[in-house]
Structures are given as C-alpha cells and as structure tokens.
Amino acid sequence: MRKKFFNDNESDKDVGISSLLWLTKMRQLLHHFSFELRRSLPNRCLLCQQRIDQQGYQQTFPQRMLTGICQTCLVSGLYQTEVCLGCAKPLTLLQEYCGRCMVSLPIKVIAPCSYHQGLGHLVSAIKYQRQMAALNVLSQQLAYRIQQLVNYGLIDLPQVIIPVPLHTNRLRQRGFNQAWLIAKQLSDLLDIPMDDEYIFRCQDTTPQAGLDGKQRRDNCHQAFALKVQQQPLNTGGTLAPYQHVAIVDDVVTTGTTVNEIAILLKQHHIATQAWCLARAEAPELRESL
What we know:
Blueprint: H1 12-39, H2 71-77, H3 99-104, E1 109-110, H4 122-129, H5 132-152, E2 160-163, H6 168-174, H7 178-190, E3 199-201, H8 213-220, E4 224-226, E5 244-252, H9 256-266, E6 271-279, H10 283-286
Parallel strand pairs: 1-6, 2-5, 5-6
Antiparallel strand pairs: 3-4
Helix pairs in contact: 1-7, 4-5, 5-7
Family: Belongs to the ComF/GntX family.
InterPro entries: ComF/GntX_DNA_util-trans, PRTase-like, PRTase_dom
Protein name: ComF family protein
C-alpha cells in the first residue's frame, strides 16, 4: 500500500501549495547556507572588483561586516548624512522626522543607502541576477544601521521580523523570495525571531515597477491578510500575538506595500516599522544625498 503523506481531506490543490512552499523554503535555506561558503573564498569587492584588504578598514565597521565590499565603496555607498525616517530627506540634526513628516508621522523606513546611488545598485542584482553575495552585504549594512538608530534612541527593536510575502504564483516563477532571505539574515544578525506565516499575500498583484503612486496603491489594496483570521479589537477580537513588528522588503519606493501591511496590522493595534536594503527617494531629494 502506498504511504500517505497528507490527510485524506486535503485537496490536490492544498497538497500542491504545501509542496511548493516546502520546496521554496528549502531553496531559500540553501541560499542562506551558501553565504558561509562564500566567506571562505577570495574576497573581492562586488562594486569595483578590487581585492579587499581587510587591514584597511576603519574600526567603525565590525569585523563581521567586512565581507563583499571594500572600504572605499562602503563609505561612499552609504547615506552620507542622517535622513528623515519618513521621506529620506537629509537632516542636519539627529532626529526621527523632518518638519513636514512630523505633522503626518508616516511609518518609519530604515535603510542604509539610496537605491539610486552606491550600494543601492546591488539591489537589482539580487532580484534579477540572483547575486546572493550582494544580499549578504546589504543585509549586514542594514543590521548595522538598525543598531545605530537603536543606540541613538530613535527606534526600538521589534518583537518579530516579518518578510513581505510573495503570492504562490510569483514564488513559483521566481523560485525564492528575496524579502524572506533578507529577514533571515537580519534575524540571525540582530537575534530577533522571524515569522513568515503571520501574513500572506491573498492577491496575485501586478509587479509594482513602472507604476505611478495611484496605480501602486490600487494594485496593493487589500492584497494582504493575516494567516489566522483575527477580528479587530474594536469589533470584539482577541489580542494579537505581537505589539511591535518590522516589515522587511528589498526596496521601498512610495511605501505602498509596507503601508498596506501597516494598515492591516494597525487594526489589531500592532505598531509597525519598515526595514529595507535601499530607499528609492523622490527625484527632488536624490541630488542632495
């Protein structure tokens, strides 16, 4: 008799989705473990291709952060000044928001660099060329930036890290979720648990690239849901398992995706901040970074 691996009441569709998610997680874990192998290989800068001399690094960068990028590219590729956590406008003082964002208090977005300059150029290599070494470098710099802001007293560490989920159709096409890989790296570096099952994408939306602000908002409207259907507290629902979470994505442009998730979580009184590898600022801000 053939051994049954699933319950009799599970449909073929459910079995197929479960198998896909299992295979995808295994593939993502293989990508994660391959980072350790790369660290043992000759180290060349991902941007300028020069051999990295670790003796030349300043002591401000921890030793574990020295893989994959040279000192020159690292320093020039990061934000050169403090930026508003709302809109990424350069700031002259160490504070959370610029004057304009102090009024609206948007979701805090933490990123180590601009998508349009320096290290930000590595983001597209991760998504479209599967350059996982670049993901390792940027995740390390994001973790370092987060710890800086915690030390400055500008943010608090969350209880859990949640990667922006992909729809199962997109996951099948791409083979991996870069947000999951980033979240896994941050979970290890910052010693914060990751929950990749609390939120799922219930709509197979169009890719956001190339859409304007309104199109992005319409595209992501109600695209996410909680795995466990909790009713909001004001309608008699139960207390959520978390009070403070960080949503992780590769890049934040208009903030539509993370804001849509934040709206969902706010219904359950969950505070949210967004962590990303790079921030795509408005055109008028790019020259001042």
